[in-house]
Design a protein that fits this description.
Layout (H helix, E strand, L loop, with lengths): L6 E2 L6 E2 L15 H28 L13 E10 L4 E10 L5 E2 L2 E7 L5 E8 L4 E2 L4 E9 L6 E7 L8 E3 L1 H8 L1
Parallel strand pairs: 3-11
Antiparallel strand pairs: 1-2, 3-4, 4-9, 5-8, 6-7, 6-10
Bound molecules: zinc ion.
Length: 178
Amino acid sequence: MEAGKNKKCEFCGSLNPASAVKCSLCGRSIRDKRYNLIRYIIAGSLFFALIFIIYIMQQVDYTETGSKFMPGLELISSAGYSYVSGDMIVEGKVKNVSSGILKDVQVVVLWYDKYGNKIARISAPIYLKSILSFQISPFRAVKPFVPQMERYDVSFTTSGGEIIYTRDMREIEKLKQQ
Ligand SMILES: [Zn+2]
């Protein structure tokens, strides 16, 4: 028998035929260690594959627009004021509270008169092109001033116009600052 084709028992060191399953001397399974190694390699590979998938999911462009119970954004502050140039400016801060990156978020400001009629609408990209999870971005929307402007609504959409669910935190933030 050629020595090269023999399998060495990893427990007692005796040589066994290549086809042997058990060691002829100590009786222990010759394949044990190799099988365990394969099992560790498979388990390890699956573990790293899972970590990799979780990592990729964190990085992927996040088009999730949230829901009533899991909003994508929080409106932290907003202020509307008319400027000497004759512009009506609405600006504030918005926070990404989703678990992913939000890209190309648009702020939409609707103006109403005192009767509740919609009189103006402006949409503009927010300051940050991409907001990371829990990052805050300023926003600003400018519209020519008209005296009928009585109150405004702020909402946010994707670049495709899909509404991003936004939790209004303005009153809560004001109370915190007092
Ligand atoms: Zn042995």
